[in-house]
């Protein structure tokens, strides 16, 4: 792939070619490799283990509080996919949850593309692409494992340019993390059109732009995942009344994930959402509640660890789910979450996220 100029026209041509094959009634059915064939593991004991894990993985999404430590741990040991040399695209990667996920996946062997708009330091909003790039480089001690691209994901042209840079360098895309979001947790009366447009454009349209641009490459990947950082799409008046527009944008991201999963259900690409069970210490958290709320929050590392466990899972059957970070980790056998607390001396549970049912 290194000798090929990856242009938006080529990407669209690939998409049209593959879509026309799908719509042709005489075309052969799409090839969907069994997970055991992909892994090259055909021992009889693994079939039984995989079936138990198949049930366990589905249960994580359907019954978030269920304890599945042994099954999921066996699933990860025997059936999880390696991230070595896979290419992960992370949006909103200059700070907070996006940066933490990028660093975690780089640490586990992935090549990471950081997409964000923060290029120069900002005294009111810490975090830049360069700083995130440095963190990824340090955990891998390899400058070639990460690239940073300044990209406004609301602009399809900039998304195409960023994807061109990624594919030129690595020739593939395996995982997309739709993390970029802007927030304004205020009432409708306090939200002007400019802020409303920005939230909808970044949160919903941005996720759409990046996902659809990457789909031709994801469909060629083995065990491709699209993970969107958004809550379960269960709107509640407790969320809608105080910050209706922000809620609409985040639930819109979740509904988009569901719609894309329905569209590409047979393409071997998993679409899931992930959301923190408790408040996470980010710039948005500080904006909402200041230092007091930050101290009663968890670090972004808890979301990053949950994201890692999702994207190494077989895409064939772990798709169309709405996960919470705590429940994913609990299902892996983790029961002590105190190390994720911002304040190690916190004497009570961190503050619940306001998108989580109490």
Automatic annotation (TrEMBL):
<dbReference type="Pfam" id="PF00106">
    <property type="entry name" value="adh_short"/>
</dbReference>
<protein>
    <recommendedName>
        <fullName>Ketoreductase domain-containing protein</fullName>
    </recommendedName>
</protein>
<feature type="domain" description="Ketoreductase">
    <location>
        <begin position="86"/>
        <end position="267"/>
    </location>
</feature>
<dbReference type="InterPro" id="IPR057326">
    <property type="entry name" value="KR_dom"/>
</dbReference>
<dbReference type="InterPro" id="IPR036291">
    <property type="entry name" value="NAD(P)-bd_dom_sf"/>
</dbReference>
<dbReference type="InterPro" id="IPR051935">
    <property type="entry name" value="HSDL2"/>
</dbReference>
<dbReference type="InterPro" id="IPR002347">
    <property type="entry name" value="SDR_fam"/>
</dbReference>
């Amino acid at each position: 792939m290194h000798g090929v100029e990856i242009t938006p026209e080529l990407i669209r041509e690939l998409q049209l070619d593959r879509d026309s094959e799908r719509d042709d009634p005489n075309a052969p059915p799409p090839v969907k490799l069994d997970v055991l064939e992909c892994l090259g593991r055909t021992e009889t004991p693994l079939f039984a283990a995989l079936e138990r894990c198949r049930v366990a993985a589905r249960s994580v999404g359907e019954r978030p509080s269920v304890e599945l430590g042994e099954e999921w741990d066996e699933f990860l040991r025997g059936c999880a996919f390696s991230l070595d040399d896979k290419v992960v695209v992370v949006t909103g990667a200059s700070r907070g949850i996006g940066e933490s996920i990028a660093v975690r996946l780089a640490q586990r062997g992935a090549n990471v593309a950081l997409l964000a708009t923060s290029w120069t330091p900002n005294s009111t909003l810490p975090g830049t692409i360069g700083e995130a790039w440095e963190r990824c480089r340090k955990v891998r001690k390899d400058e070639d494992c990460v690239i940073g691209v300044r990209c406004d994901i609301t602009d399809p042209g900039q998304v195409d340019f960023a994807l061109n840079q990624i594919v030129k360098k690595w020739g593939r895309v395996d995982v997309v993390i739709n993390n970029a979001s802007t927030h304004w947790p205020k009432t409708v009366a306090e939200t002007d059109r400019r802020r409303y447009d920005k939230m909808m454009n970044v949160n919903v349209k941005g996720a759409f732009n990046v996902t659809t641009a990457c789909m031709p490459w994801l469909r060629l990947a083995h065990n491709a995942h699209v993970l969107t950082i958004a809550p379960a799409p269960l709107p509640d008046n407790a969320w809608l009344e105080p910050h209706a527009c922000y809620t609409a944008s985040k639930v819109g991201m979740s509904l988009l994930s569901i719609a894309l999963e329905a569209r590409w259900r047979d393409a071997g690409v998993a679409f899931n959402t992930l959301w923190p069970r408790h408040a996470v210490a980010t710039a948005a958290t500080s904006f909402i509640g200041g230092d007091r709320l930050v101290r009663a929050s968890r670090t972004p590392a808890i979301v990053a660890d949950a994201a890692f466990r999702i994207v190494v899972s077989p895409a064939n059957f772990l798709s169309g789910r709405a996960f919470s970070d705590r429940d994913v980790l609990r299902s892996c056998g983790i029961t002590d979450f105190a190390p994720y607390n911002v304040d190690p001396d916190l004497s009570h549970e961190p503050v619940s996220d306001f998108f989580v049912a109490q």
